[in-house]
Amino acid sequence: MKKKLTFICLLLMNSIISSQTATQIVNLQTPDLDETSGLLFYDGKIITHNDSGNANLYEVDSETGFITRTVEILNTTIYDLEDITQDNNYIYIGDIGNNYGNRTNLKVYKISKADYNDSDNKVTPEVIYFSYEDQVNFTASLNNNNWDAEALISYGENLLIFTKNWVDKKTNVYSIPKNAGIYSANLESSYNTNGLVTGADTSSDDDIIYLSGYSSSEAPFMFTIHNIPNNSLNIFSGSVSEKITNIAPLGNQIEAITLFEITPTKHRLYISNEKFTTFLGSIPIVFPAKLWIIEVDVETFTLGYLDNISQNEKIKVSPNPFYNTLNLSKKVDEAIVYDLSGKVITKQILTKKLSLQNLNKGIYILKTKTGNSVIIEKIFKL
Q1: pLDDT in tens, 153-212
Q2: In the CATH hierarchy, which top-level class contains the domain 20-302?
Q3: Is there a cis peptide before residue 31, judged by omega within 30 degrees of 0?
Q4: What does the alpha-carbon distance between residue 344 and residue 366 come to, in Å, rounded to a whole number?
Q5: What does the DSSP assignment read for 222-273?
Q6: Strands lying side by side in the sheet with 290-297
Q7: For the whole model, what pTM was predicted?
Q8: Domain map (residue ranges) of the chain
Q9: CATH fold of 310-381
Q10: Is 114 helix (H, G, I), strand (E, B) or coil?
Q11: 138: phi then psi, degrees, rounded to nearest 5
């Protein structure tokens, strides 16, 4: 009977694996990274942390899963570290886990990148304390409240916190300033994810937000958000993708996500899961902590949107191919030229004529933005 059960389980696992959209690349170092909870791609390195046990940041080799550097966060009392994000000058780590819904010491650690880059492998953070503006009940209720959170992003001048709502399976988005202090987090947006959001990241220009999580059955999922109105913290007023399900096999509890590369056709992200153990009768089934890669097609962020742009809003470029100058049919708020690896070559604002004489011959990607309209197309330098 046991042999039959094992065979059935293997068939089920193979069926699930064949439908996944993420690719497992390596197991993470055990037991040091068994509780990996946040991911950051900074300066070509993968950085992670555990949700409890110590106040360390770990740089990880993507080929071996081994820790290559450990950085200690000084002068901290860790409760539940859940996510990590960055802007140009700082790294932010969210001590925002709140399984019982009764914490009154929620905080984000703010670390300068100059301090992180120092060779002594120690950092001293500033602290941003906060509470939710609409929370009035602090009665402990394990995994039965809407005040837990595991996802944090830097977004313009603010930090955005995505809650992990155990009760209604939604996520609420709260904003707090980036400066050290004590704040009441403002409720900005809400969305029915029908699952638990556990990780978030943004593109470098804040144009796209990526959310990951898992359902009550542990099935991993992902959302993307784009076309967010300028200067708005109501991010779910943008275009929200359909729920991308089965991004990893059932049983891999996805905890974190980070963008590491944008190409003309794909956005490439790392995701990670923590160690998870379940049982088949008395037989333990262990899912080790792992690092994965997931790719999202660029069409996810453009198709179905361009069709809604009127002819008056569309931007025409000429000549294309061009030699030194590219003319636009109307002035745009922003024009960005990428090479085919996704690297930004030039960014120009409030313009209708691009001076591109320093570009080498070849194919490039032009993204123009006017108001809430974003248009992406290929351009050819002669």
Answers
A1: 999 999 999 999 999 999 999 999 999 999 999 999 999 999 999 999 999 888 899 999
A2: mainly beta
A3: yes
A4: 10
A5: EEEEE-PPTT-S-GGGSEEPPPEE-SS-TT--EEEEEEEEE-SSEEEEEEEE
A6: 22-27, 290-297, 266-273, 254-262
A7: 0.78
A8: 20-302, 310-381
A9: Immunoglobulin-like (2.60.40)
A10: helix
A11: -115, 25
